Amino acid sequence: xxxxxxxxxxxxxxxxxxxxxxxxxxxxxxxxxxxxxxxxxxxxxxxxxxxxxxxxxxxxxxxxxxxxxxxxxxxxxxxxxxxxxxxxxxxxxxxxxxxxxxxxxxxxxxxxxxxxxxxxxxxxxxxxx
Length: 129
Known about the structure:
mainly beta; Elongation Factor Tu (Ef-tu), domain 3; seven-stranded antiparallel beta sheet; 1 helix; 9% helix
C-alpha cells in the first residue's frame, strides 16, 4: 500500500474540489452516554460506565481566497442552509474516501496585513459512507 501524499487529498463539495485549498481534515466523534445505575456505583475503580451514543463529525478546509471561486458557493450554501455532499478523497478510484451529507456551520475569512486573504470553513456532516 502506498502512503498518500497530503497534497493529493482534497475536500470536495458536490463533486467539486475546494479551490486553492491549503489544508483540510475530517474528524469523527462518538458521544458517550452514561449507563451507570445504582447497582454499579463505585464499580470499575470509580470510572463512569459508558456506551457509545450518537455519532457526528466535522470537516475543515483552509483555502486561499479568490473572487468568484469556492467561497461564494460555500457562503450561499451556509446562508441558505443547503445540504451538500462532502467527499474527502485523493480521487484515485481504488483508494478509500469519506463521503457524507453536510451542512456548512461556519465560514471565517481572514485578511492579515500584507498576507494572502484566506478562509476557513467548518462542515458538520452526517450519514457517513
